[in-house]
Each structure stands twice: as C-alpha cells, then as structure tokens.
Structure to design on (750 residues):
C-alpha cells in the first residue's frame, strides 16, 4: 500500500525534533509509522541509537514488529537490532530492574496482576473499615431501607469504594505522591473527603504490596520516572540507546507516561494519536488533553493523516456529520470541544486500496419499545445479514457487560455462532475451562455427570461441525448433535469405572443405543479413554505437575501452554498458603466465570490478537471495539444513561445507594485532588464530571460509528413513556436517525 496525504510527509520529512501525527480512524497510522521506521533504518538516520516505539496493547506490539520486519525484508535488510517495540509497562519494568536498590525494591519483586491487585485493595479497605465503620456508613443513604436492603447496599458500596480508591491511588502515583506525601497533602481536607480516606487506604495497600514483594503497574511508572530523574547516568544510557522515541495511541497517555517518554526522547519525540478516539479517561488516569496540547506547541511539527479507505463514503459522511453536530449544536456548550474538527476524507481515485462501495444506502437507525424488543430485533437482523452476506464479518456492540449477556443469550437461543471480546469469553478462557473440567472429574472420578461434562468439553467439542446437516441455524436433531446428547445421557447413568477399567465389569452392549454405538462420536470417545485413565493414575500430590501433564497429553499450543504454566505456578503458591485447599476447590475456582486466572488468559489472548471471522458474530463493548473493524456493525443500547447529552440525563456513574451529595464519588475525588495540587478552579465537581462523561461518551459513539466498513445499524429504545421510570433514547440517536432518513430518501431517489 502506498503513502497517502500526511503519511508521505511524515516518511519523507521527519528527521528529528517534536512531531505530532493526528490520525483519523482507519488512517493507517501503524502502516505509516512502520514505513517511517524502516526508511530511517535503511538510510542509517536512526544512528547512533535505535528507534523506540511505545504502544499500550500487547497485540499492537506484535503488529508493529511484524510490519517493520516485513518492510525491512522488502528492502533486503534482516534483523531487528535497530528498533525496539514495547508497551509502556514493559519499558518501565526494564528501567526499574536496572537499579531496584535505589527505589528500595527487592530484586525478586513481582508485577501484580489485576486479580491479585483487587484482592489486595479489598483487604486494605476491610482493614480500614474495621477502624472507620462509621465513616464508611456515613456516605450511604440508609433512610427507609430494610435490614436486608441495607446489607446489600453495604456490599455494593464496599465494592465500588475499592474501585474509587484504586483510581485515587493511581492519581496519587501519577503525580509522584508516595503514601506519606498523599496523607500529608490531604491533611487539611474535611473529614467527609473521600480522597482523604483514600490516602489512608493507600498507605495500607502500599504496605501490603511491599510485604508481598509486589509492584503494580502504577508503581512501575512512578519508579521508572523517579530513577530516570535521580540517576543522570541511567537517563543518559537510555538517551544514547534510543535516538528516536515514538508513542502510539498518544491520546491515551497520562502525565507520568508522557514525562517518562519526554525524558528519554531528549527532543526527538514523535507522537501519533487521535483525540477523537480518547475513550479511556473514565476508568484510567489517561488525559487526552496532553496530546492535544502537544500538537499545539509552537515547536511541534504536525503532519495530519485525514484519508481513510476503511469505510464507505456514506459512513464517512455520517461520522463527519456527527463531529459537526457535536461541535456546532451540542446543547451543553462546554461539550462542543469534546470532538476536534478532524474530518475523514475518502482516499484519492488512484489509491490502490479504495473505499468499499455498496449498492444500497447501508445505514439504518431504529428505536424500539423496550430493551428486550431491541435485542430480539437486532439478532433477527443479524441472522438476515449472515445469510445475505456469508463472506462478511459482523459485530454487535453494546454499552456494558449486562447488555452483552442479553445479546449473547439471544444468539445462543437461535444457535448463531458468536465470539465475545471480554474476560468471560469462552474463546479466551477455553484452556482454563478444560483444565477445570478435568480436575473436577479427577476430584470425583465416580461421578458420571462430571465425566460426561469433561469428555464433551475437552475431547468432543467442535469436532463435528463439518458433518452437521445444513440448516437455518437450527441443527437437525436426528444428526450429530442428537448423538452427542445420547452420549451425555448414557454417561450420566452408566458406571464410569466400567468404561475406564473394563476389568471391573463387562460393558453390556445392549445398554448402548444402537445409533450411538455406530457413530463416530462413540469411536472418538472410546479412543480417548486411555488418555483419561492416564489422568486418574497420575499422582495428585503434586498438583502443578498434574496440570502440566494434562497440557502435554492434550497437545496444548504455545498460548495454551503459557496459560497452563501460569495456573500451575499459582496453584503451587495457593496450596502452600492454604494446605486445606483440595482438588475440588481448585476445580471450583477454574470453572468460576470470574476465576483468578482469567486476567492472564486475557493478556495471552491479546498477544495472539483477534481476527474477526465471517459467519461468526463478534459481541463486544464499545470500548473493546477500539482499534478493530468489521464489514457490518450493529450499535445497540443508544439510550440516555449510557450516551447522555443533557446535564439532566441519567448518568451511569452515579450510585443511587449513596447520599445525594456523594452519588458520584469519582468526581469528588478528582475535585479534591485538583484542590491539593493547587489546580482547582472552584467549579462544581459533579457538574464538571457530567461534562467530562458527556464528552467522553460522544467520542465513544464516534468510535462505534467508525468501526463499520459497509453497513451500520444504530438502535435504542423508548420504554415506559410518561412514567417515572421512563427510559429515553439518546438525543444523539434521535438526531442521527433523522439525518440518515433524509440522506436515505435522497439515495432512493437517485
């Protein structure tokens, strides 16, 4: 693929200094940054050091490496000694490991994963509560509630408080505050200040981290910056090592990340991003204004990438209409700058990769009478599009995990192949589930139901897809699926011992249904019995070795082996900590939808990357869709709670079980943080939070719109009209629906 406007200027002209590349969705920023790096290396312009490319996703690291290597190979250059691609956390980990003694860190420290991190913060909150129960309860709205309801709300507030405190700790660390400094800075805040109590919990959490020999991701960033600042020789080493520093997805950077890269770059800093796709601020301490400010610096050279071949011209027009709508007509004036005037252009007529074209106007919007009606209607339309376009990729995007469950349930009911992009996805956690089924059976080998569940999950699943009779997503119950059901029913009632050890008693062949006895699924089942016997005969006294043995016997691939090794290591630690843990306890943990191993499996899955497949519907949240694209996209749940426009709209971030003045604890924490940093403006913190939420949700919808290549469906619902619990569609949906109906009418008239 050749170079387009903006890309060409970057590759041919940028040779040093501060440089910003604002890039629209689908603009090929990874492609042009890879070409630039290869061009610099080919000409030797990167010397005396290397080119460092920092990004935020593990999958993006692999993508960059492959693209640069491919471009260098095309130029006859082999090897990767001239460039480094890394996540920001991997980079900081290397810096911290250079001199751990300077930051009072043990050389054997471990990086804490998200599950363990939440366990630690929960423990810290519990410890704080034991001395501050009255303060904890102070924020709750306790009037007119039964004892049961109060107990339920205590748990909800406890869980939410853990998240609020983690956010505050991240903010403290990003501003260089250790626990003692944080507590001292908050000393003059009133006793009702959540930030003040977060500082106290921070001290408890930090102590637990150190006692366990852990660092979290925020620690790595903080300590890396501290090392580079206090040790001039170390900073000079990294400056000599990297002649150029490039930051991808710069709109998601935060203050401390920006400072680290600026230090190392020593003036040669290239930042690539799209401020209109900054959607991480609500659940991280990223600050999208940093990239915007960098672009506006007088010393920064700016190359704008504005052309994209991802979408049809109609979808491009809709995305540009939405940017213009927000900037010119948003009812809240403070939100009009939430989207910058970066308008997408289709590619030139001579471009080798043209924008897709459809024979019809491929955009529709619909408002339904309830969420259930929306779910059923969307899935019905998905089925129609799968039949009509079997070669195209399809996704359904949802605002949150609750709505995802409803979409998934409906797809399952109608037998539609799908894949979830979340931590409960079967695809992500299949390895863990397989291990769970086998361990569950080994813990109770006489249980026929567990035996059947293990065989189906580990040995017989998905083996008969090509033999399934053709149907409209309704398998012929006289086909292979019914044979699987017969096998499952047979295993539940037949003594497992006889199947595994025939010497224990002859199998009465008359008990086996004739259709099952003649089937391939039965032959495959009997072929696997020797492997299962091996599992039962392996000593269970050393569970981690059993797990590795299972992975070997099932011929796990590279990613699956990595997950199995992680499980084995964690199990050894868990059983040492709690000698009462049994195989059945491990099985229960492995089979739990929220088990402690899912986070690591998710990282492995991201490293592998995700490629949508035609005929398999992708179900994801709007946030998870960033960086991806599909031929056909359904944007669901476009209601005022998830996509607010007015300040009077309902806001998801507000907790109804708290007192009115504390319903948005994150906003209060951020306001107090600004106050202690001397950056407070005196604005109403709740009002400011609402403005930030409205702005970020506008960008989130923009991300959703730009995921679609050819067809785009937008939907919401209007329920309980005129009642106190009325649920309204987002104003964005109403405006967009009116717009596309006008454009669609013109299209029909052509």
């Amino acid at each position: 693929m050749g170079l387009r406007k903006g890309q060409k200027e970057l590759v041919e002209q940028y040779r040093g200094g501060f440089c910003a590349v604002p890039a629209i969705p689908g603009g090929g920023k990874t492609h042009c940054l890879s070409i630039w790096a290869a061009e610099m290396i080919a000409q030797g312009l990167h010397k005396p050091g290397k080119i460092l490319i920092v990004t935020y996703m593990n999958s993006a690291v692999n993508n960059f490496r492959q693209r640069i290597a491919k471009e260098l190979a095309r130029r006859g250059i082999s090897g990767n000694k001239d460039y480094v691609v890394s996540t920001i956390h991997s980079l900081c980990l290397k810096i911290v490991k250079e001199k751990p003694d300077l930051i009072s860190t043990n050389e054997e420290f471990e990086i804490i994963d998200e599950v363990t991190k939440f366990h630690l913060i929960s423990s810290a909150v519990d410890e704080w509560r034991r001395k501050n129960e009255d303060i904890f309860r102070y924020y709750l709205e306790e009037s007119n509630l039964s004892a049961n309801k109060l107990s339920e709300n205590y748990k909800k507030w406890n869980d939410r408080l853990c998240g609020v405190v983690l956010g505050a700790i991240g903010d403290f660390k990003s501003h260089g505050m250790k626990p003692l400094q944080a507590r001292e800075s908050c000393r003059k805040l009133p006793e009702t200040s959540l930030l003040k109590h977060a500082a106290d919990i921070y001290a408890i959490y930090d102590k637990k981290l150190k006692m366990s020999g852990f660092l979290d991701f925020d620690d790595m960033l903080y300590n890396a910056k501290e090392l580079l600042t206090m040790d001039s020789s170390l900073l000079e080493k990294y400056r000599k090592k990297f002649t150029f520093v490039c930051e991808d997805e710069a709109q998601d950077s935060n203050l401390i990340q920006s400072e680290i890269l600026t230090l190392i770059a020593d003036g040669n800093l290239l930042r690539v991003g799209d401020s209109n796709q900054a959607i991480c601020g609500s659940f991280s301490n990223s600050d999208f204004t940093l990239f915007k400010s960098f672009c506006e610096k007088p010393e920064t050279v700016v190359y704008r990438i504005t052309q994209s071949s991802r979408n049809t011209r109609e979808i491009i027009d809709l995305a540009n209409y939405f940017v213009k709508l927000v900037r010119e007509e948003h009812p809240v004036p403070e939100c009009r700058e939430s989207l910058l005037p970066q308008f997408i252009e289709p590619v030139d007529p001579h471009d080798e990769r043209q924008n897709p074209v459809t024979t019809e106007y491929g955009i529709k919007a619909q408002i339904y009478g309830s969420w259930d009606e929306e779910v059923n209607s969307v899935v019905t339309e998905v089925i129609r599009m799968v039949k009509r376009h079997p070669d195209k990729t399809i996704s359904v995007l949802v605002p949150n995990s609750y709505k995802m469950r409803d979409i998934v349930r409906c797809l399952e009911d109608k037998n539609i192949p799908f894949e979830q992009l979340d931590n409960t996805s079967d695809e992500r956690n299949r390895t863990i589930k397989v291990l769970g089924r086998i361990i569950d059976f080994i813990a109770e080998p006489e249980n026929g139901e567990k035996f059947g569940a293990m065989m189906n999950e580990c040995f017989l699943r998905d083996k008969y897809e090509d033999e399934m009779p053709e149907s409209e997503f309704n398998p012929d119950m006289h086909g292979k699926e019914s044979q699987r059901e017969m096998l499952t029913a047979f295993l539940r009632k037949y003594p497992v011992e006889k199947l595994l050890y025939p010497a224990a008693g002859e199998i009465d062949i008359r008990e086996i249904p004739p259709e099952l006895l003649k089937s391939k699924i039965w032959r495959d089942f009997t072929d696997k019995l020797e492997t299962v016997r091996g599992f039962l005969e392996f000593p269970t006294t050393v569970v981690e070795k059993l797990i590795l043995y299972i992975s070997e016997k099932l011929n796990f691939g590279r990613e699956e082996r990595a997950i199995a090794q992680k499980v084995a290591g964690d199990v050894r630690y868990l059983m040492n900590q709690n000698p009462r843990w049994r195989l059945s306890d491990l099985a229960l943990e492995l089979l739990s939808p929220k088990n402690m191993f899912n986070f690591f499996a998710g990282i492995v899955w991201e490293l592998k990357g995700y490629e949508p497949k035609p005929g398999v519907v992708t179900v994801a949240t709007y946030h998870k869709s960033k960086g991806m694209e599909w031929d056909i996209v359904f944007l669901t749940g476009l209601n005022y709670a998830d996509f607010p426009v007015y300040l009077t709209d309902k806001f998801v971030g507000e907790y109804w079980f708290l007192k009115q003045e504390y319903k948005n604890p994150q906003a209060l924490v951020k306001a107090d943080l600004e106050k202690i940093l001397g950056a407070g403006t005196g604005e109403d913190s709740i009002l400011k939070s609402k403005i930030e939420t409205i702005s970020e949700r506008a960008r989130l919808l923009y991300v959703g719109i730009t995921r679609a290549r050819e067809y785009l469906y937008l939907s919401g619902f209007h329920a309980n009209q005129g009642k106190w619990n009325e649920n309204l569609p987002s104003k964005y949906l109403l405006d967009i629906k009116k717009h596309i109906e006008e454009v669609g009418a013109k299209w029909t008239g052509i």
Q: What stands out?
A: The chain has 30 helices and 14 strands. The chain has four domains: 7-96+222-302, 111-212, 363-421+611-749, 426-608.
